[in-house]
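URGENT: need a sanity check before tomorrow's submission.

F., can you look over the Zinc metalloprotease record below? I want to be sure the sequence and structure line up before it goes out.
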Amino acid sequence: MKTNGNLWRTLSTCGGLVASATALVTLLAMPDAPARERLCAPGHSAARVSDVAVHDPNTLTPEDAAELDRQLQAAAVPQKSPDPQNPVTIPVVFHVISAENGTGDLSTETITEQIAVINKAFGGQYGGVDTGLRFVLDRVSRTVNDRWFSDFATFEDSAKTELRQGGAGTLNIYSVNLGTGLLGRATFPQDYKKNPKADGVTIDYRTVPGGGRENFDLGHTTTHETGHWFGLFHTFQNGCDEPGDYVEDTPFEREQATGCPEGRDTCPDKAGTDPIHNYMNYSNDPCLNQFTPGQAERMTLAWTAFRT
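Structure tokens as predicted:
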């Protein structure tokens, strides 16, 4: 599929878990400038894509990723490796935005289950390493607003200005209807200082545990987006080219995974097969089960540099 170059860069830079090629066609029909305004918060953001039909090899350009890494290295301070025995605890404010007819009004039980999922994921309970990062639900806000719920990208600035709570170290999660395509997106920690109100994670309300989004309702959209919130790139950042995703122990990967393609090796000249089980890939939720030690160290580095 040939795409509009400017909007494709917009989608790549903003990120977004796009669930189907139909959704991409809808996005491509949008005029360039309004599309950029509605899809992108200021600064960088990133997410997932769930269908190989939507070819999005880099959610960030190599230049954008390099700049974010430069900022991280400049701000980094010497530190110990993540310590699961003394974990960092992150307060979470969960913003439930729903329609007037009740659609999207997540129960407190569901929200609690979502927090449990990311705690298990970051704690290595599904597999992979314990990152030494933990989450505690601080509060839940509930807003009934049809426009915010169904067209969050248009009203994101006003919604976040009204709703966002806490500082750089508070994870704000916004649950809305992102339509048939996007499943979630997040901001990077490097961008907090210049636009604190934009900071946070946005998910489609159907991606929570039991939410009904086919292949994506175990809660790992939030896991993935929270990884971005801590500064991680996709595993397929830069494809087979150096420096990849800037993490030493994640194998190179030419493009995003879809489904759960065991044994796939898109960079045969590089060590290891594709990291299809990594939370920072686009595999289906049941396929995802790990962060690596290198990713844990990078998240801790970004946390210390930008969120403490």
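My own read: The domain at 1-308 is CATH 3.40.390.10 (Collagenase (Catalytic Domain)). The chain has one domain: 1-308. If you see anything odd, call me.
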